[in-house]
Amino acid sequence: MATYFVTGAAGFIASKLVCRLLKEGHKVIGIDNFLTGLRENIPDDLIFIEGDISDKEVLANISNEKIDAVMHLAAQSSGEISYEKPEYDIMTNALGTLNLLNFSVERGIKRFIYASTMSIYGDVDDKPIRETDCKNPKSYYGITKLAAENYVNTFSNRLDVTSFRLFNVYGEGQNMSNIQQGMVSIYLSYFMNDEPVLVKGHKDRFRDLTHIDDIIDVWVESIDNHKSFGQSYHLATGEKTTVEQLLKEMAKAWGNEQYPIEYASYGTPGDTFGTYADISKLKRDFSCYPQTTLGVGLEKFIKWVKSEQQNK
């Protein structure tokens, strides 16, 4: 049995990771400030700390027991919110990551796994992005996440670090009340409320959409994957999906292929037109990689959403 420290433990991805690790018999310490995370995501057997990773005193008060790995997923991850409160991005995404890296060195924790983002690239050509491509973030969010990834890289001579650049993650357990984060969940919230879907931006924008189960599989494998030490990877499907294609698949999975869609003449500040990943490096170094098709993933997600609605 190992002991893991998971940040952002009440959030969508981290809470799923916590549950998987606990199910496998590990001991898990989690931290969250509940700014976007949900208290209902905290399982009873998680050793939980309410606090902010940008506060060194909070980290200093964590027990001195041996921790085998830090799995850092805490972040302010909404591009829209980053324009409203850019200083919070700096505190959480940049300073918080630096604090955790220093905490890991001080506590003798060798393994550090970081959730980065495709937003570090900014606008790119209509082709699969490679890990070596130019980084030119458009949003404050992307800027602070790139800074944090650079901090992680500078610690690679002291820690066994791995960064996963996540693209668009969706699936069961997502916070459906947060309409400023997650393309799939934002659009799905309109279906839930029986309202026409309002799309901010062009229907030809495109994304790489990854189901949550695939994300967790790779994170768990990465813990003891020595090939990944000192590396950054795209964690995505490698498939290009336009907004128009996504909405057609969502309407089909919802059971109404004629569901009304409205396109606004404006977009979200800092939003990129399109990104999708080259995942050849991930396939080279990992035995598992995202393979859930969009149709299957959406069916699972929508089934969960409808079940949640019925249970309210």
Secondary structure blueprint with pairings:
Layout: E1 3-7, H1 12-23, E2 27-32, E3 47-50, H2 56-60, E4 69-72, H3 79-84, H4 86-107, E5 111-117, H5 140-154, E6 160-166, E7 168-170, H6 183-192, E8 197-199, E9 206-207, E10 209-211, H7 212-222, E11 231-235, E12 241-242, H8 243-254, E13 261-263, H9 280-285, H10 294-311
Helix pairs in contact: 1-7, 4-5, 6-8, 8-10
Explained architecture:
It is globular, with a radius of gyration of 19 Å. It starts with a strand and ends with a helix. The protein has helices at residues 12-23, 56-60, 79-84, 86-107, 140-154, 183-192, 212-222, 243-254, 280-285, 294-311; strands spanning 3-7, 27-32, 47-50, 69-72, 111-117, 160-166, 168-170, 197-199, 206-207, 209-211, 231-235, 241-242, 261-263. The strands form four sheets. Strands 3-2-1-4-5-6-11 form a seven-stranded parallel β-sheet, sandwiched between helices. It has a two-stranded parallel ribbon with strand order 7-10. Strands 8-13 form a two-stranded parallel sheet. The relative contact order is 0.14. 38% of the residues lie in helices and 17% in strands. It contains ten helices and 13 strands. The mean pLDDT is 93. With 312 residues, it is α/β, with parallel strands linked by helices. It folds into two domains: 3-171 and 209-238 and 276-291, 3-Layer(aba) Sandwich (Rossmann fold), CATH 3.40.50.720; 183-204 and 240-273 and 301-311.
